[in-house]
Structures are given as structure tokens and as C-alpha cells.
Amino acid sequence: MSPRILRQNTVLYIAVLAGCFVAGFGLGLTPVGMRFDYVFYDFLTKYSAAIDAVSLKSDAVVVAIDEQTLRAKGGMRNIRPILSEALDELAKIGPKVVAIDVVLADPGEEDDDAKLAASLARTKGLILDCELIGNKWEDPLPEFKASAVALGHVHLAEQSPDGVSRQIPLEKKSGGDRRWALSLDAFSAFTGQPIIESSSSPSLQIGKTTIPEPVGAEGRPLMIRYLPPRTIPNISALDIQKNRGYIRDSAVFLGITALSAARDRLTNSYGNSVPGVEVHAQAFETMALGHFLIPSGGAAVLGLCIVFAIAAGLIFLYVPGWWAYAVDLLLLGAAFWIPFQSFHRGVVFPFFGPVVVAWIASAGAATSKYFFVRRQLRTSESEKSRYQQAIHWVAHEMRTPLTAIQGSSEIMTRYKLPEEKGKQLSEMINSESKRLARMIQTFLDVERLADGQMDLKKESFAAGDVVESCLKRVRPIAERKNIQIYLDTPVEAMLSGDRELMEYAFYNLLTNAVKYSPAETEIHVSGTISGGELRLSVRDQGIGMDAHELKSIFKKFYRTKRAEASGEVGTGIGLSIVEQIVTHHNGRMEVESEPGKGSCFTIIVTASNPKVPPAAESPAKSPNAETFNR
Fold first, then answer.
1. Are the beta carbons of 123 and 254 closer than 8 angstroms?
2. How far is residue 252's CA from residue 250's CA, in Å, rounded to a whole number?
3. Which of 77, 155, 195, 225 has fewest C-beta within 10 Å?
4. Whose CA is closest to 544, among 563, 571, 525, 526?
5. Which DSSP symbol is given to 241?
6. Which 3 state secondary structure label does DSSP give 534?
7. Which of 137, 144, 159, 135 is closest to 112 using CA atoms?
């Protein structure tokens, strides 16, 4: 494969992989991708929690003011007597902490408030709730607040787009007044350790427990790892004494769970509707078990996606055959395994983006390799056919000088010739053998030039010398058909490159014009300099071409229908060689043609004005180049 094609394939391959990366990573940022990530997060939460639940004893207990409790105690108008009675029952059993998720900011009946205040005073490890309304904290009444060891906010994080509550803010601020979450205060009271902010890292320390915080996150969000349903005991306020074993030395979360009265109903990772008090209990258990999760961060996800795209490209670039697909299966497996394993190590990696990048990049790389291999196969077959035709062409073109050499040598061998005649034949043999050697060398040079295996000569020469030399050689051929060749404008320009190859190119255009022009017509040659470029044109009055044929005229071995019908012998390689030579001189070809009216071929190359005018006489000696026919 030529270096140019190899570079094109490499650039295209990189572009395909880059496109696959952008597409996959972009899909991961869409709502659909985020929804897949949420589903994967919930799956891993349930999977890991099911394993933990086998030997898990929950420290948290939910004491629920449920529908049965409200019906038995007269409904929500008696909520404070219900709380007072429940707290008295709990005090008899002795939990370590009681966290109440019921708003106690407004005064009620005087007797009810007095009884509740007394019950609160008898409760050990009491945590009361508070809410941030606008920019002001709504706290419990002073007589209630006096008995609490802490006030914990009960705000929950905004629900995700799919409606599932997966995290809570551990911190809420209003001006300089900060409150910790109800579950965090409960955990601090349960362990008997204060909440300490780390000065060296964005985290909280409670005893031996370090609660990590995502860098740059607002409100210190805690991702909840929900335990399976019924892992945390849910006890009706009517059945407190029946569940003394669960309640003793536990962290009790007392709140309203009745559908008719609960203000905060949420959906957990299991798809179940749960009250807010149970979410606080789940957050407490996340901290008690130390099962913390932090997001991986955008840079890590971007880096992983880039690695997957590059790895897919390298696999299909360097691993041969079907082994590439086998190795790629390992890559695809890693795309699934890494988010799964990271979750168990406490890092939440988005699932959809990296997996999609791995799949799309693998598909893109495999498809590109397939088409590249097909292209190489077609190129190989085309090259094989091309070289077969080239051999035929060389064999055909070599017949003329070989015939002259063979004929002359036979005459010299068979007959005793006069000295003068023998000298002529010897000169002819010498001339034709040199002509044959140049023909072979030219063919090889052009092929090597096309394959990028040969560097051009870098010499300065006069374009006028090339034109004059070619005109002298082609005029005798034109005279046989009574064709007149005119040089319309003097060609005064200096070119840089390989003079011999440029002479071959221009001579080719001239011989083609003569070959495909009717007798007694004219051929006009002109050369003009404009914008630092030389436009060297050959215009004939020949058979011409239509627009469709012009698109293929420089393809190797292509001949127009009119050229084939003309009876002129040709192989279709000449113009291809001309274009190759001009292109390698950083030039280009232009063609104008009309059927029946002739053609104009123009070589356009970079040129400069000559320091001295080109010599009209004694033109530079150049090889006797043969015509490479259109």
C-alpha cells in the first residue's frame, strides 16, 4: 500500500474512532443515558444490599404512626397525644436515640403540649426535626426544643428525573445558621461522637466513621444504599411493647407513615413508595454500615471512554483475524465489569456512556477494518491487473526498437555490406538499443514515482527549452498528416523539478494531439504566467470528449470510445503518467473538450520569470522520449 493511501486510511480510521467516541459519550449525557445509569445504580444497590442483608441486624427502627394508629387514636387532630403516648412507651424500653420526623413548630392544645413536653423531657437521645422555610428556620416550640440534644433538618434531595430519591443533603444553611440532617444527628448521638469537619479533605468524621463528600458538591449529598424491604423493622405505634427486642438500644425514627397524613412520600431504589421517615432511617443505616458511595466525576468517565475507544481501535488494528473479535470481547466485558466493581468499592461510575462507547467504537473499528481489508484486496487485484496490462504495454512498445535491432543485425550477419551501409546499420542498432533502454527506465521510474519510492530531481530549467525540444521532435510526425503546429506565445519561465519527466509529460500531450487530430488541422501551443504559475496548453482540433469521459481520462488504461473507434493504437496509460508527473511537481492538470471540436490539455505548475531568455538555438539535449498514448 502506498504511503499516501496508508495516511488516508489512518486519518479515516482515527476519524471513525473519534466519531464513535463522541456519539457514545454524547448518548451517555442524554436523558435516556442517565435513565439507564439510574436503573443500573438501583440494580447494584439491590444486589449488594441483598448480600449484606443475609447477616445484617439493623440498628435503626421505624416506629410508624400508620393508618391503624390514626384510626385508633382519633386521627391527626390527636397527633400530639399519639406522640406523647409513643414516647412514654419507648422510654420504658430504652432506645439509644429517638429521632422524631413530625413538625412541632406550631402550638396545639395547652394540655396536649404540656404532656408532650413532659414526654420529650423523659426521652434520652432526642433529636427533633426542623425545616428551612424560605430563608428562615422553622424550629420546634421552645418547650419542646429544650429537651432535644440536636435539631436535624428533614429536607430530602430533589428527586431525579425518574422520580426516585437516591440521596439526601447532610447539610442545610441559612446565612450563618447551619443544620445537619436528622439522620446524621441521630448517628452522632447513637455513637456518642461529635460531628467533626475534616480540615484535610471534604469529609465528615464521626468517631471512626468517615463520611466522604463529593468534591465541589453543594449540601454534602449522601447517596443512600437502600437495604431490602423489611430489613429495617417497621413497627406500628400501637405495637411498641410487642417489639421490645427490636427497640432496646436502637435508633428509633418516629414519624407518620399513613398515606392519608404523610406529607413526604418518595420512591426508593426498589420502586416502592416509602415515607420520609423511612428514608431517614435508610440514610442512618448507610452511615452505620459505612457503605458510602461517591460519584466518579466527569474527568474519570471521560478518561475511561477515551481508553475504551483507543483500545478498540488498537485491537482491530494490530490483532489479526478472528482473534481481534475474541480480544474485543474482553474489552466489552471490562466495560460492564468496571462500573460493577467500582460500585462495590464505593465509586459510582455511569454505566451507559462507557459501555456504549466500547460497543460503538468496537463496531466502528471492526467495520473500518473490514472495509479497509476489502479495499486492500481490491487494490491488490487492481495492481495485479494493472501490472499485467503494463507488461503487455511494454511488450507492445518494445516491438518497434527490437524489430529494428533484429532486422539490422540479421542483414549485417547474412550479407556482406559496404562499409558505409554497415556503419548506418550499426548506428541504427546503437540508437534503437538506447531508445529501448530509455523506454524501460522511464516506465520503471514512473512506476516507482507513483508508488512513492523515488524522489524527484530538484533542478532549475527553462520551460522554453522543454517546449522547443518537444516541438522539434513532434513536427516530423505531424507533417505526415499535414498537421501544422504553432507556438502562439513564447514560453519564458523557469521551472524546478525533473526536466526529463516534464519533457515526457509535454511530449505526450503533443503526440496525443497529433494522433487524434484529423489530417490538415492545426495544433496550438501556448504558455502564460499568472500568479506565479505557468499554464502550458496544447489545443487540438481532434475527436474531443464528452463530460462523462473527462472524469476518467487520467485513469490508467482508460480509453474513450472515440479513441478506440479511431483505429489508433494505444493502451490508455499515457495521460495517467502525465498527471502523475505533474502532480509530483506540485502541479495540476486542466482539460477542456467537446466532441468533434477538439481538446485542450493544460499543465499548471509553479514557475518564476527567467533571469535570462531561453536559448533559441542549441536547445538542451534531452532523451528521445517515446509517446505514451492516451
1. no
2. 6
3. 77
4. 563
5. G
6. strand
7. 144
Q: In terms of Cα–Cα distance, which of 421, 381, 98, 90 is closest to 244?
A: 90
Annotated domain spans of the chain? 3-31+297-379, 57-292, 382-450, 459-606
Give me the DSSP letters along 215-235: TT-SS-EEE--PPPTTSS-EE
Sole residue written with cell 466519531: 19
Residues 100 and 64 sit within 8 Å (Cβ to Cβ)? no
Which superfamily is assigned to 459-606 in CATH?
Answer: Histidine kinase-like ATPase, C-terminal domain (3.30.565.10)
| Cα three-residue angle 279-283-285, rounded to 5 degrees | 115
Q: Give the whole-angstrom CA distance, residue 180 versus residue 182.
A: 7
Long-range contacts of 37-43 (CB under 8 A, 24+ apart): 37/350, 37/351, 37/352, 37/353, 38/160, 38/161, 38/162, 38/164, 38/166, 40/339, 40/351, 40/352, 41/166, 41/269, 41/343, 41/348, 41/351, 42/164, 42/269, 42/270, 42/271
Question: What does R_g of the chain's alpha carbons equal in angstroms?
Answer: 46
The residues, any chain, with a CB within 8 Å of residue 355's CB and separated by 6 or more, are 332, 335, 336, 339
Phi, psi of 64 (to 5 degrees): -100, 130
For residues 238 and 86, give the distance between their C-alpha atoms in angstroms, rounded to a whole number.
8
Q: Are 70 and 123 in contact (CB under 8 A)?
A: no
Mutual orientation of helices 352-414 and 419-450 as an angle, nearest 10°?
Answer: 180
- What span, in angstroms and rounded, lies between the C-alpha atoms of 287 and 249? 17
Q: What is the mean pLDDT of each run of 10 residues along the chain (630 residues)?
A: 64 83 84 83 77 69 93 90 94 94 90 93 94 90 93 82 83 88 94 85 86 77 86 92 91 90 77 88 91 83 88 85 87 88 83 87 82 66 63 64 75 80 80 73 64 69 90 87 90 88 88 88 91 91 84 73 64 77 89 89 86 41 36
Task: Please report the pLDDT score of residue 374 as a whole number.
Answer: 66
How many other CB atoms are found less than 10 A from the CB of residue 422? 15
**Is beta strand 533-539 parallel, antiparallel or unpaired with respect to 598-606?**
antiparallel
C-alpha cell at 34: 442517565
Q: Which three cell numbers stand for residue 18?
A: 473519534
| Residue 598 in grid coordinates | 477538439
List 619's β-bridge partners, or say none. none
> 382-450: what fold?
Helix Hairpins (1.10.287)
Asked whether the beta carbons of 98 and 280 are under 8 A apart, the reply is: no
